TrEMBL record:
Binding site for NAD(+): G7, A8, G9, N10, V11, G12, D32, N95, V118, S119, N120
GO biological process, one term: lactate metabolic process
Ranges of residues in domain Lactate/malate dehydrogenase C-terminal: 147-303
Protein name: Malate dehydrogenase
Pfam families reported in the protein's UniProt record: Ldh_1_C (PF02866), Ldh_1_N (PF00056)
Lineage: Bacteria, Pseudomonadati, Bacteroidota, Cytophagia, Cytophagales
Source organism (scientific name): Solirubrum puertoriconensis
Keywords on record: NAD, Oxidoreductase, Tricarboxylic acid cycle
């Protein structure tokens, strides 16, 4: 299996490192626009192979998409990260152009690849890549839900003093402060979380999760990369190993949840064909209202992209 990661910055390099270390793909191509950075990081990851013990090959290139040809999966992480005081949406004008030009190159050399978008603002960059690619929505989708649920699960594991492995959770909506964690669908070793933690503590964890990305931006001056890189690699693994994992993934909803033409996180089954199925949960009125707020926010940012004239299909 061949996997390309575009953007050899913090998230892209971490993703490539996890892919290699866990031997998720035997050939990993790292691409960046900055001369030498992808080559250097790919070489560094390859030189770690004898120490850790893996045989996935990592190759780095500067803007040479011919080396990415016939990739099975492509992860797009290219673009600016936010700085303290910025929202993800503030990145739209710069990152839309980057995601558009990268997607054109990716599709030209790997027309059958499944594309995973990571660049922010995530839901709208997924829209940008999907439109530019002209591909089926089940093959171009975004990573956010695995990261957001991982934060939620980590906070819960800490509060309950249990293994994060035993916490199962799903959340929906946009990758922003309006995301919709679903405590009703959260279990700890099969036990509903609501039986194990007081409501006010759970509410505080939900709140912290919603602004989880911003917490890290404040601490580090740039956004997170270890968990985001690993989350993208976990999606690649589900696809290349046809695992049929159930994850929240950002995809264009077309009637599901009564929503049409908006890119939002929803639980899906991920396998060799990309999204194999979008799962429709039964939401209660409160959850539906939260999802509607999130939908409205993402739609506003999609409209802003449309106004910029960026969201054009590749052939337009
Ligand atoms: N979806 C999610 O949950 C998350 C999304 N992100 C987003 O991922 C993106 C990357 O974040 P970091 O890796 O921390 O940033 P970074 O600045 O460390 O790396 C970005 C890389 O993209 C490269 N790049 C820029 N234009 C390019 C082009 N046209 N072609 C190829 N490479 C290009 C840059 O040279 C740089 O090396 C940001 O937009 C960030 O907001 C970050 C964390 C989580
Ligand atoms: O917060 C950011 O800008 C990066 C991101 O999406 C996250 O870490 O959730």
């Amino acid at each position: 299996m061949k996997v390309t990661v575009v953007g050899a910055g913090n998230v892209g390099a971490t993703c490539a490192d996890v892919l290699a270390t866990r031997e998720i793909a035997n050939e990993i191509v790292l691409v960046d626009i900055k001369e030498g950075i992808a080559e250097g990081k790919a070489l560094d990851i390859w030189q770690k192979a004898p120490i850790i013990g893996y045989d996935s090959r990592t190759i780095g290139v500067t803007n040479d998409y011919s080396r990415t040809a016939d990739s099975d999966v492509v992860v797009i992480t290219s673009g600016l990260p936010r700085k303290p005081g910025m929202s993800r949406d503030d990145l739209i004008s710069v990152n839309a152009g980057i995601v558009k030009s990268v997607t054109e190159q990716v599709v030209k050399y790997s027309p059958n690849a499944i594309i995973i978008v990571v660049s922010n603002p995530l839901d709208v960059m997924t829209y940008q890549a999907h439109l530019t690619s002209g591909m089926d929505r089940m093959k171009v989708f975004g990573m956010a839900g695995i990261l957001d649920t991982a934060r939620y699960r980590a906070f819960l594991a800490e509060a309950l003093n249990v293994s994060p492995k035993d916490i199962q959770a799903v959340l929906m909506g946009g990758h922003g402060d309006t995301m919709v964690p679903l405590p009703r669908y959260t279990t700890v070793g099969g036990i509903p979380v609501t039986e194990l933690i007081e409501k006010d503590k759970l509410d505080a964890i939900v709140q912290r999760t919603a602004v989880g990305g911003g917490e890290l931006v404040k601490l580090m001056g740039t956004s997170a990369w270890y968990a985001p890189g690993a989350a993208a690699a976990q999606m690649v693994e589900a696809i290349v190993r046809d695992q049929r994992r159930v994850f929240p993934v950002c995809v264009e909803l077309k009637g599901e949840y009564g929503i049409d033409g908006v890119y939002l996180g929803a639980p899906v089954i991920l396998g060799k064909n990309g999204i194999e199925r979008i799962i429709e949960l039964q939401l209660n009125d409160e959850e539906k209202a939260l999802l509607e707020t999130s939908r409205g926010h993402v739609k506003e940012v999609m409209d802003a992209l449309d106004k910029m004239g960026q969201a054009q299909p590749a052939s337009a």
